[in-house]
């Protein structure tokens, strides 16, 4: 099976480099997806890049979205419900129809730069050493305003039939289940098949627990 890997905000496909070997050793094809991120890029441009990867996949792929890109993976299920075999979301939840994609931090000069580590103190970043923090911040790609403030459009209710695996890093499965039950994640509340998987890591397990993350994604596939 092809496993498409979409990084969250400020990341490109290279963030998966240590996850790829474990996936491919198990006989799957790992496809890191780098979405466009020029200042003029819109959310629909990024969606188009993900859909192109889905359409190019051999067979029906597992589409993996990390953090905010959980929404990109879910949009792929909405736009290609008969092509996407399963969605895996890591440390994030799909945004509801009509909501802004990722308007989380200050936008300056047409983009949303990485806000610094103060915003991620605690469980998110506790397992990142100083070298990893410096490398991630230095390589962070500003998120175009047209992406961060893009409106999510979901139209095909067949997406709710696509199985979902929720990988829980800085929070646990019980937390995620409680949030969904409380109505905080309406998209997953309506999904017919949701599996919860725990991983003992912070928000970026592809950097701190790549082998374990690869194993979980292989099991999902």
Automatic annotation (TrEMBL):
SUPFAM superfamilies per the UniProt record, alphabetical: alpha/beta-Hydrolases
Gene3D superfamilies: alpha/beta hydrolase
Highest taxon listed in the record's lineage: Bacteria
Coiled-coil annotated spans: none
InterPro entries from the UniProt entry: AB_hydrolase_1, AB_hydrolase_fold
TM segment ranges: none
Record-annotated AB hydrolase-1 domain positions: 3-215
GO molecular-function terms, A-Z: catalytic activity
Protein name in the entry: Esterase
Lineage, opening ranks: Bacteria, Bacillati, Actinomycetota, Actinomycetes, Micromonosporales
């Amino acid at each position: 099976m092809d496993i498409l890997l979409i990084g969250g905000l400020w990341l490109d496909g290279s963030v998966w480099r240590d996850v790829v070997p474990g996936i491919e050793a198990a006989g799957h094809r790992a496809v890191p997806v780098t979405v466009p991120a020029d200042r003029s890029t819109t959310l629909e441009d990024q969606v188009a890049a993900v859909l192109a990867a889905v359409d190019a996949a051999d067979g029906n792929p597992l589409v993996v979205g990390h953090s905010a890109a959980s929404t990109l993976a879910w949009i792929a299920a909405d736009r290609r419900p008969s092509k996407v075999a399963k969605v895996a979301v890591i440390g994030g939840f799909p945004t509801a129809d009509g909501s802004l994609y990722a308007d989380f931090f200050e936008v300056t000069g047409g983009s949303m730069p990485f806000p610094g580590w103060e915003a991620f103190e605690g469980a998110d970043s506790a397992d990142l050493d100083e070298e990893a923090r410096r490398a991630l911040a230095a390589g962070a790609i500003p998120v175009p305003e047209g992406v961060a403030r893009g409106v999510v459009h979901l139209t095909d209710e067949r997406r709710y039939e696509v199985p979902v695996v929720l990988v829980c890093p800085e929070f646990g499965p019980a937390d995620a289940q409680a949030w969904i039950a409380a109505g905080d994640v309406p998209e997953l509340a309506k999904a017919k098949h949701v599996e919860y998987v725990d991983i003992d890591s912070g928000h970026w397990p592809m950097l701190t627990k790549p082998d374990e993350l690869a194993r979980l994604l292989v099991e999902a596939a």
